[in-house]
Design a protein that fits this description.
The protein has 251 residues and is of the alpha/beta class. It contains ten helices and eight strands. The chain binds 2-phosphoglycolic acid (PGA).
Length: 251
């Protein structure tokens, strides 16, 4: 299980430092749950220092495919690795929506991340319109198969998937545990098909979209829900810690 906090564009230097410290103290020691926070790029260094000596891992929210070069304003997987990141969120719906990231672009980024031994948290999920048209599974299948095309992983710990229905992100509206489990099972089947049952059955599939201390336990109790990608609730250390503790109890 992995609980990852996506701080999005919400912290400056003092608030990021303070939040990192509060997360470490509220979360405490976990036995079976991995915990990560993904601050804005300008806070990566500071948060890395704060996390030193704790078991909370660092992640980034985005990167460009490739290594080095003339790409003004961008950072790459080797640069994030050198800055202490273990994870990188890729293909988030906000990136797809506002920055026109296609499945092919997401695929290139995942290949670069994996080549640099950064663990991609690959986000997939449908809009409300697509769900209401009964096409959610088709869309997520297409997103995932294209994103993972030619992505070699050798063990389950090299990859994380996050199912984030767009209509549940930041809206306070959550997928029901049944809706989540249904999609997670479909994702699981694709992972088993691509990577074999040994690896495919163990890759963590996170749920994301208005997960909070009130709904986490039920969502995390479902068979294929292997953690959470948390936006809003990750900005409050006690709420984030409550979700981590719900995950501990669900393992
Ligand atoms: P939310 O965001 O928890 O605020 O809905 C989740 C995400 O976008 O990763």
């Amino acid at each position: 299980m992995l609980i990852a906090g996506n701080w999005k564009m919400n912290t400056d230097l003092p608030t990021a430092r303070q939040l990192a410290r509060a997360v470490i103290s509220s979360v405490g020691k976990t036995r079976n749950v991995l915990v990560a926070v993904c601050p804005p790029l300008t806070n990566i260094d500071a948060v890395f220092s704060e996390l030193h000596g704790s078991s909370v891992q660092l992640g980034a929210q985005n990167m460009l495919a490739g290594e080095f070069g003339a790409y003004t304003g961008e950072v790459s997987a080797p640069m994030l690795r050198a800055a202490g990141c273990r994870y990188v969120i890729l293909g988030h719906s906000e990136r797809r929506q506002y920055f026109h990231e296609t499945n092919q672009i997401v695929n290139q980024k995942i290949q670069s991340a994996v080549a640099s031994k950064l663990i991609p948290i690959v986000c997939v999920g449908e809009s409300l319109e697509v769900r209401e048209a009964g096409k959610a599974q088709d869309l997520v299948t297409e997103q995932l198969r294209t994103a993972l095309d030619d992505v070699p992983i050798h063990s389950d710990v090299e990859l994380v998937i996050a199912y984030e229905p767009v209509w549940a992100i930041g809206t306070g509206r959550t997928a029901t545990p049944d809706q989540a489990q249904e999609m997670h099972a479909a994702i699981r089947a694709i992972l088993v098909d691509l990577y074999g049952s040994e690896t495919g059955r163990k890759v963590d599939i996170l749920y994301g979209g208005s997960m909070n201390p009130g709904n986490a336990a039920e969502l995390l109790s479902r068979e294929d829900v292997g953690g959470g990608l948390i936006g809003g609730a990750s900005l409050k250390a006690e709420e984030f810690a409550a979700i981590v503790h719900a995950a501990e109890n669900a393992v």
